[in-house]
Structure formats: structure tokens, C-alpha cells
Amino acid sequence: MKDATLCFILRGDPTREILLGVKKRGFGEGKLNGFGGKILPGEPLRIATVREVEEETRLVLSPDALRPAGTVIFLFPFEPAFDHHVHIFTASKPRGEPQETAEMAPAWFPIDRIPYDRMWADDPHWMPLVLDGKRIDAVFTFAADNESLHSWSICQED
Question: What is the residue range of 92's domain?
């Protein structure tokens, strides 16, 4: 199982917008998602998150600006190489303007109109909790098509 990070960048106080990006290549190609990815050997989670956000959006975040929002385990029994243990963060007030990169095409979306139909099937089940300030621990198991959900569980805390 691969360890990874995922960060949702929020704008406004109260939050009015979320930055999402269309994945342009690799795992999840064509889907909207937050920003993140692999953790290098020995790399702290916050540093990996900041690095991945900058690589995918050209935005600069302070590691101290990251708010831990929990973990999600994604299981793909029919393609175990896709299994991920993802550490979720939210952040606001990045430096710079989001730019398209070779991997992602970022765009701002109203927080009350997130296009879940363009995202992974699990996202509408847990993202609203995270965006509401909850911390979650969740497990999602995907079906044989590696797209639809077979089962899931979510534990949350304030």
C-alpha cells in the first residue's frame, strides 16, 4: 500500500471556494481532485504535502499552515497496486496564483457547488465532513471496475 498526501486549498473567511485540479496523467487521469501525492523516503508528511502542492499548482504553502484532516485508506481488491493510505490536509492563504502544470489543471470552485460528478466516487461521502472542519478516518473499498464503491466506513471527530 502506498502512503500519499492530499491537500484541499480553501479561499475566503468563511470558506467560499476550493481549489481543485483535473488530473492530466497517471492514476486518476481526467478526474478532479485536491493536490498531493507520494511521500519520499524519510520525508515528513507536511513537507511532502507542501512539495506536492507546489509541483502540481506552483502555489507555496507554509508547513505550519496545513490543518490535518485525517486519513483515508483506498482499497482496490481487483488492482492492489492502486491501494493508498492518504493523509488529508486543508490549507488556506497560499503564496502565488495557481498555474497549470504537466500533471494538474487547477481551478477555483464555489464551496457549495463542488462538481462531485467529476470526482472519485468516494469524495461526496467524506469531503463534506472535512470541509466542515471534521477530522476523519475512513476506508473505501472499490468494486471490480475500480471506479464504483463496494463498501466504506467513516469515523469522524470534531
Answer: 2-157
